[in-house]
Write a structure and sequence with these properties.
Helix content: 55-70%
Low-confidence stretches: none
Order of helices and strands: HHHH
Mean pLDDT: 81
Shape: flat
Distance between the termini: 54 Å
Largest sheet: none
Radius of gyration: 20 Å
Strand content: under 5%
Number of helices: 4
Length: about 100
């Protein structure tokens, strides 16, 4: 992978650097973990929809019908919620086991 050369003509003091906060990094980690079990088109549909795009626009980008994109979005959201609830229940059971010992 070749990278574009860095343009050094812009003064160093004028460059804007944005550093994520710890909370933003934590949110990124959580979202990345949620997205792992999903297919690539499902990930794209979720990101596009989260960005506020219309179903027709999303469908054109992923090459599927708008209604089918909506179904994939709903199924993916349900899977994320189910996995998150399972994780919460697992953590709750572990905490309960520690407290009752």
């Amino acid at each position: 992978m070749s990278m574009a050369p860095i343009d050094d003509s812009y003064p160093e003091d004028k460059r804007i650097r944005v550093y994520p906060t710890a909370g933003e990094l934590h949110c990124l980690d959580a979202v990345t973990e949620w997205m792992l079990p999903l297919s690539i088109p499902a990930r794209k549909i979720l990101w596009y929809r989260a960005d506020g795009n219309r179903w027709r626009w999303i469908a054109a980008r992923v090459g599927l019908a708008p209604r089918y994109c909506q179904k994939i979005w709903q199924d993916s959201a349900n899977l994320i919620i189910a996995n998150d609830i399972q994780g919460i229940l697992t953590q709750s059971e572990a905490i309960h086991a520690v407290l009752t010992d």
